[in-house]
Write a structure and sequence with these properties.
alpha/beta; 6-stranded mixed sheet; 14 helices; globular; 444 residues
Length: 444
Amino acid sequence: MITFKIGGVHPHENKIAREAAITPLASPAKVAISMAQHLGAPATPVVAKGDKVLVGQVIGEPSGFISGFVHSSVSGTVAAVEPRADIAGNMVPHVVIDVEGDEWDPAIDRSDSIVREITDSPEDILAKIKAAGIVGMGGATFPTHVKLNPPQGKKAEFLIINGAECEPYVTADDRLMRESPDAIVIGAAIMSKVLGGCKCKICIEENKPEAIAAIQKASAAYPDIEVLKLKKKYPQGGEKQLIDAVTGRQVPSGALPIDTGCVVQNVATSYAVYEAIQKNKPLFERVMTVTGQCVPSPRNFRVRLGTPLSFVLEAAGGVPETAAKFISGGPMMGKAIANLDATTQKGSSCLLLLTEEQTRRKPESNCIRCGKCTDACPMGLEPWLLNKLSRAGGQYDALEENKIFDCIECGCCLYTCPANIPLLDVIRINKAEVMKIIRGRAKK
């Protein structure tokens, strides 16, 4: 088994929904589909109130190089095009649709048959991936067509498919690998073709033996695809950590994975690529885990994008009285949800419910310079120093010199701190300020 060399922690798995098979969730009476569910510029709505739409129809077009198409996840009538609060509480444009039946774009192949032969050219594949609105589904939501089109002079030697799913509680990728391994492998082969036929490594943590077996069986006929077993260690699924584990190469500070000859994609992204190229199906639904010790029925749902979180929770048994905090994602890198009227997005991998006892922070005490946060940081940073500089105020030059921008916000420092110092919170706020300064400098 392989793993990355620097830092990392071993939080409890709590994969309590791992045996819950993926269940299609019925469409609600109304959806609100965000135009800003990808990294980069929000899409521009191309429908208006009163328009009729089909499942899979384009309702938003890219408004920049790093942007993406958005498609309707339901059929019905557009009720409004308006700003609404998203999962983080930000007001962003949404297309609100009253659901009427379930009529799909006739170009979509809805059969269960597996299409193995890849007939499209690399150029056509890239165009279709862009048109399908596919983004990185591990959480970053970076447009996939951009990532699969390296800058001139850069060449991909390895395509790394991320099946680590190292976040506690989250089981969406595990179930997808167990239930749809052929589609994931074919999606990987498609992306490898786009990248010039580079070797592909599908990486899965050791705590998913069924997924490993399923992907190994599905990839047996593909000589350029290798399945690698990863040691269970957080944050094994980080791009830079995966590259280190697979190739032994380190992504330099400020550089991109392609600078080491690697492109990293999530298994759910690989599945979406398969559906787009082989089935003409845009990205309008995804697998999402609903979990937590207080959840009546932890589940893995296939959810239409734009579905209210409250509707999803009702399907998992409702909101328990003991739930005190709702998180989009896992407990390490997930973000607290501002309201349950917000709707699912392309990056919505998990809805986690925690009790008051689980979220109660212990009293903060003084830093004792034990160095545990430094040992745990997978980026080789010194969180105690970044915290000290951040709290001093105005030390942005010093924070930049100490590479605060390299922080991946994994939470390892916070998890391991015996003084209960909210290291991640302090660093995250000041990292954002430093990044603003760097962006402003680049514009001059």
